[in-house]
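Sample 3 of the quickstart, ligand uracil:
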Amino acid sequence: MQYEGVTVVDHPLIQHKLTIMRNKETSTKGFRTLLREISHLLCYEATRDLELTTIEIETPLTKMEAPTLSGKKLVFVPILRAGMGLLEGMLDLVPSARVAHIGLYRDHTTLEAIEYYFKAPEDIQERLVIVLDPMLATANSAIAAIDRLKRRGSFNLRFVCLLAAPEGLQKLHKVHPDVRIYCAAVDQKLNEKGYIVPGLGDAGDRMYGTK
Ligand code: PRP
Ligand code: URA
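Result:
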């Protein structure tokens, strides 16, 4: 099934690593390592169309006009806590990127996202912004984060996650159709508690061993 505004990055390496992450026997350390590895592959796809310019350099043999990224450095925005699991891998590939943090947690009864922290670079509105969170379930957290960033003037936004529920993909695209979504897999559904099924459980708990 195809979803509008969504790129599913289903490279065999990602699928293999994701299967290990889903397994409830996988350790906290293993889970974090795999998430970082997958984030490299997601970053590759989410930055595929970054603009280039050329600069003159000299190789040991000759001068040449060589491609280099143009424009202002991009901004990664991990949604705390679990978004941190994607951040380090993104920074491995784009080390000069800026980072904004947004702290959100889901109220367990209403599933609404509650904000508890926000800190962003002053000129974030002039940069491409990539929001990071491994899980897109109801999409309440992603929508709250993107609402917040738009209130700060950002309108060049992308959203990168690992697993998405069909309900979350459709809702996020409906509310923010300008924000392209990148994910590694789309699962079957949400359960009555708002968890992705089959999923991988609570991403924050699995990353940090809090349950
Ligand atoms: C998880 C996850 C997302 C959110 C997704 O965070 O990391 O931020 O749930 O669910 P949604 O699409 O229904 O909003 P959680 O609220 O468990 O906070 P945590 O990362 O601090 O554990
Ligand atoms: N958040 C998670 O960490 N896991 C889910 O399945 C849904 C929301």
